[in-house]
Amino acid sequence: MEVHTLAVDGGIVNSSKFRQILATITNTRVELREMLEVTALGAALLAGLAQGVYESLEEVKQCVKQEVFLITPEECTEYCKDVKRRWMVGIERSLNLAE
Asked: Which domain holds residue 89?
């Protein structure tokens, strides 16, 4: 599966350095919405839909129209390659926790 864009939200994406590193080491565009806590907003809006506050999913979608910022990958330096290597080691270790 090829991933072209990562949509991110939550506390850690407050860091512009983290967003740029993420884009660069994954060689993927990172998409950031104006509101950083989109997950919480989405849960609240879907609860409103379930309770009849909103009549349709289309009405809910109108509530979340926000500006989207794109962070594009930069050239991967030696430092970046080292971060990527350590990132992949961490992922491998976490996958082994399930065994």
From this structure: 5-96
